[in-house]
Amino acid sequence: MSERDGFAPGVPCWVDTWQPDADAAMSFYTQLFGWEAEDTMPEGVEGKHYMCRLRGRDVAAIASRPEGAPPVTAWTTYVWVDDVDATVAKAREAGGSVVKEPFDALDGGRIAVIADPAGAALGIWQPGEHKGAQLVNEPSAYSMSALMTNDPEGAKRFYNDVFGWGIETFAMGEDEMVMWLVDGYIGGEPEQPVRRDVVAAMLPLSGDGVGPPPHWDVDFWIADVDAAAAKVEELGGRVLTPPYDIPGTGLRQGAFMDPQGATFSLTRPPGL
């Protein structure tokens, strides 16, 4: 369990999902994770913004899709930065694009959504009063984000140029898995099977060309992946990859889709 009051620059710090029907999404995730949800959208502003909490601490948000947002329903990962506008300029210089231009988000600070050269979208966040997730790395909380891409070499260059991420690679048969690192950062949990300066991962897309385009996935820890898989289906979602054990890690994981199309993974962490 990790309680947080802020993160370091270059570290993913928050996740949210913009949905066509925020009320329905809120119902799905609160039942799946046991979250409490409060609509924090200011009076007179159209749409919903649910702050989701675990034991009273902010863990994620579910909101109505804002004007100008990408039309794809997904979970978005946000990386903590000191200056959103400067980071947007870096992303453009590195060959990326801007999906949503920088905007001020009430007490949330300043936000933009960029995309890498292969098209995978990622949020960047210059925090204000709200400083990201207050609870991570425990069951029903956010744990890690992973880039799924068919352009790993381009991604390595782009994310190093934009965030300064270092890399560590692991062989996965004919493919490789990449762990992205922030020098000097100590996060995660002591019992996790990867280094504690790891902030994100990268995996290849399916080689057969079937499936979604390059994108960022989010992972939540869960106490019982198999029970959660059954719950996802009961609530109208889909099981994309049935739960399986990850060799040599003590982890059990599955991939899922909510009723409106946002994908996510669930992992039983070590020791449970």
Characterization of the model:
The chain folds into two domains: 2-135, 2,3-Dihydroxybiphenyl 1,2-Dioxygenase, domain 1; 138-268, 2,3-Dihydroxybiphenyl 1,2-Dioxygenase, domain 1, CATH 3.10.180. Helices cover 16% and strands 42% of the residues. The protein is built from four helices and 18 strands. The chain has helices spanning 22-33, 84-93, 152-163, 225-234; strands at residues 2-3, 12-19, 36-39, 49-54, 57-64, 75-80, 97-104, 110-115, 121-126, 135-136, 142-149, 166-172, 175-181, 198-204, 215-221, 238-246, 251-257, 263-268. The chain is globular, with a radius of gyration of 17 Å. The model has no long low-confidence stretch (mean pLDDT 91).
Question: How are the elements arranged and paired?
Answer:
Elements: E1 2-3, E2 12-19, H1 22-33, E3 36-39, E4 49-54, E5 57-64, E6 75-80, H2 84-93, E7 97-104, E8 110-115, E9 121-126, E10 135-136, E11 142-149, H3 152-163, E12 166-172, E13 175-181, E14 198-204, E15 215-221, H4 225-234, E16 238-246, E17 251-257, E18 263-268
Parallel strand pairs: 2-5, 6-9, 11-14, 15-18
Antiparallel strand pairs: 1-10, 2-6, 3-4, 4-5, 7-8, 8-9, 11-15, 12-13, 13-14, 16-17, 17-18
